[in-house]
Amino acid sequence: MPELELPPPQRLCASAELEERGKAVSFDVIQWREPVRAFALRFEGRVVAYLNRCAHVPTEMDWQEGEFLDGSKRYIMCSIHGAAYEPLTGHCVMGPCTRGRLTRIDVSERDGQVYWHPTRDTQPAFQD
Fold this sequence. Notes:
Elements: E1 10-14, E2 25-31, E3 34-43, E4 46-51, E5 76-77, E6 84-85, E7 92-94, E8 104-105, E9 107-110, E10 113-116, E11 122-124
């Protein structure tokens, strides 16, 4: 059986659009053949990206479009049940998601742009 050829890294946004502990950039992916929203944000100088699905109940987490961090800007917070996640690892640190974690999407920055990297399980929702 031939090896699946992965799409190239997908441009997400300009690096400057992701301010430290600011609003996230949302984007669409296909995860296991289902459409899912994802998001990327900058925390402690690093860009991280996850599926927009709480580990407790698979529902979107943002309070408002692109707003994922709690009031202290220390945790990614699920707006539905209050589960809190460590931004750099996606591990649940508080709330009903005990020992759960967010599903990470690999990202990179180069030449002032942010890219996300498709995998066998996570593909672009839209092909050029």
